[in-house]
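quick one before i forget lol
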Amino acid sequence: MSRRPSQPFHGVFGTTPELLVVEYIMPLRGVEFSPDEVSRYTGLELSKVMEVLSKLESYRVIRVTHRDARGNPTYATCPDSPYAILAEAFDEFVFRIRSLGSMQKD
């Protein structure tokens, strides 16, 4: 499945903290990211980002790749996670449905 420049799920599900974080990390396959980076991008408070990342880690969507001297984690996505695979497949499905809808309007 190819990634497109638009946001995952194409805005269909709103802007919950979990969705904002998922929208940011989905395209980062193979790229490490920090909670601070996610906070800056999403506009969420760092405490909320940490809560969401902890939840995603418990579902094995992401994993800690290392911790700095102060114990601050750096994460990466787990591309083989069933949840990550399902999210990408669902994103592709939403894209195709929306594409069909826009073609029918023309």
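fyi Residues 56 and 62 are 6 Å apart (CA to CA).
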